[in-house]
Automatic annotation (TrEMBL), chains A, B:
Keyword presence, Oxidoreductase: yes
Taxonomic lineage: Bacteria, Bacillati, Bacillota, Bacilli, Lactobacillales
Classification via PANTHER family: GLUTATHIONE-REGULATED POTASSIUM-EFFLUX SYSTEM ANCILLARY PROTEIN KEFG
Domain Flavodoxin-like fold, first and last residues per copy: 11-166
Pfam families assigned: Flavodoxin_2 (PF02525)
Protein name per the record: NADPH-quinone reductase (Modulator of drug activity B)
GO molecular function, one term: electron transfer activity
SUPFAM superfamilies associated with the record: Flavoproteins
Keywords per UniProt: Oxidoreductase
Matches recorded under InterPro entries: Flavodoxin_fold (IPR003680), Flavoprotein-like_sf (IPR029039), KefG/KefF (IPR046980)
Oxidoreductase listed as a keyword: yes
Length: 240, 240
């Protein structure tokens, strides 16, 4: 059953943050506060006096999803991330002797921009898409046999309203930990798991109510699954 | 007369080299030996303990052509060049207050690669063109109103034979100092100027011979110009 894919797996995510002045970055501080509480390793690249190549490589081997998170400087990641690439991602490590230790892992990009979304297109103020700007990272993913996730852009963080920021927290957490693809089934499973976790954290006297909510959510989800199946059947008949 | 364009101008070129181990790089040492003797400033970015932003910016203002020269690491320039970009090319300097101090200057890229030319295309080992990999630099040029020169790639320098290396010296010198576009007329003017310079350096007893050679070159050039004009006329009539 594809809809249950990844629901019970425990996935580990590594978030590599590159920012030369992290403490001064409101967006990076916000994202740090928004991190999921479990199964996420967070690392600030520029925060280390000297990169420990062996340890960085070992860490990459252990995780399932790698997130590169940075502000866009001159249509690319800051120099700190490039230094990390140039140092940690040796040729021998990435594809030497046809061993590909990163093969099958996922690579996601969380990129903040000072310009709004429409700037990133031909004829826009920046004149190129984020996909085009980050093509070198996509090529790196291809070389390492990493699965490239669609980019997670955050345009003009400082202009976001409160409801947009709340939405960003959820979307960001899903980008870090939800199994791919970002399908309805995977979203449902992800939210259901979060609900179970929340209910378990409730005080004893609220457990019954919490479980009731969880069971209603589950029923709705089953109902939705049935509807989805029916729709799929109708679509199949149409295609014939 | 377009064919004489730039022939008597003195153009200054700045070559910014980024390489973390310059002394160990045979290609970079070769290119350093191949530099034209005049009107070229050569600077090794990583060779400086700390970048002097004001001085770097002043230097950029003074020159006519800026060359970024580096090996391709993970489909981009090394971290050193990115650090230079992030530090020296402040927003205020590049396009603040709608002043564009670099407008109209030329930006060229000399990039060495470990992989052969066919690797840089869809389906090739690297899966993307050099143009696509270096799109962020082209976008930077566009933002700064710099004129982007076609990339000057050097594929697998260590496999070049001696005649190819000699050709490389000439092509490299032309890329650094010849007026654009790379037309027949501009090439002729460039070679003619080099010949005049060489003749002047000859000992007195060889001056007469040298001047004879230069004058034959000039006659041939005039003859070639006439042929070019004739061809252009024929082509015009065909187009009618």
């Amino acid at each position: 059953m594809k809809k249950c894919e990844g629901a019970d797996e425990v996935m580990t995510t590594l978030v590599l943050v590159s920012h030369p002045q992290l403490a001064d970055s409101t967006s990076q501080q916000f994202l740090k506060e928004s991190l999921p509480s479990q199964n996420v390793i967070w690392e600030h690249i520029e925060g280390q006096a000297k990169l420990d190549v062996a340890q960085e490589q070992a860490q990459l081997r252990q995780v399932d999803r790698i997130i590169l998170q940075f502000p866009l400087y001159w249509y690319a990641a800051p120099a700190g991330l490039k230094a990390w690439e140039d140092t940690v991602l040796t040729r021998t490590f990435v594809y030497g002797d046809h061993r590909y230790p990163l093969a099958g892992k996922e690579l996601g990009i969380v990129v903040t921009t000072g310009m709004p979304e429409p700037a990133f297109q031909r004829g826009g103020a920046e004149g190129l898409t984020l996909d085009a700007a980050l093509a070198p990272l996509a090529a790196l993913a291809q070389r390492a046999k990493l699965t490239w996730l669609p980019i997670f852009p955050i345009y003009q963080f400082s202009y976001l309203e409160e409801p947009e920021k709340l939405q960003l927290v959820v979307d960001y957490q899903r980008y870090l930990t939800q199994p791919q693809p970002d399908s309805l089934a995977n979203r449902q499973a992800w939210f259901a798991q979060r609900l179970v976790d929340k209910v378990q954290q409730l005080p004893a006297e609220q457990q019954a109510t919490g479980q009731l909510i969880a069971s209603v959510f589950d029923q709705n989800r089953e109902h939705l699954d049935q509807l989805t199946d029916t729709l799929a059947m109708i679509k199949e008949q149409e295609d014939d």
